[in-house]
Specification:
Elements lengths: L1 E5 L3 H13 L3 E5 L2 H10 L4 E5 L7 H10 L5 E6 L4 H9 L4 E4 L4 H14 L23 E4 L4 E4 L2 E2 L4 H12 L4 E3 H9 L8 H16 L4 E6 L3 E6 L5
Parallel strand pairs: 1-2, 1-3, 3-4, 4-5
Antiparallel strand pairs: 6-7, 7-8, 9-11, 10-11
Length: 237
Amino acid sequence: MRLLIVEDDDAIATPLLRAVQREGYDVERVATGADAIEQVSANPVELVLLDLGLPDMDGLDVCRRLRADGYQGYILILTARAGELDRVVGLDVGADDYLSKPFSLSELLARVRALLRRAGRSVSPVEDPVATGAGAPPGDGLRVDRDARRAWARGEELSLTAKEFDVLALLDQQRGAVVSRETLMNEVWDENWFGSTKTLDTTVGRLRQKLQDAAAPVELSTVRGVGFRLEDSAGDA
């Protein structure tokens, strides 16, 4: 697995780089936002450890740019900013997790492992049932494989962030029923999450757009004051 550390402070980057390497990951380090965007564009990266206080641009803008460019890996923000607003904005622009400085290396590594474990990255390409042809997705409809953490619309795989997939999987599991905002926040984020629920609306909005772009035969509708419902489109029911 290949990770990218985006951190301009050598005093933080050097021990972090060594710790991640000891875990067995292939890791590179860059010190600017521009280099991070270029590196991710040029090479496949499973996870980006992103500092917000970069010398050339704000880390939130880097995160936003990576997602806009189609990066579907994981982004773990590292920052000295402790305010709730920065944390919420970071999640809204596409980050998957947020760790405030100072932090222990053991906690950071645990979060890295948790993100990669959620992605089902332990399945190698050789073992991937879709890659080998076994259990290949059908040519039409929407299919969500929660074990492999993959989704297809009309036979084409959807490019989803971790949160987008988690929301889709939960809605798909109860397709046709309304899933409350509270259930989604508790299951996808954390039952102890006290930040703004705007991050849920942002995630659902991105997911809805991706489903529409892929011509998925489903509708993701908002039930005002309650939650969201995923159901088959009228013409495909």
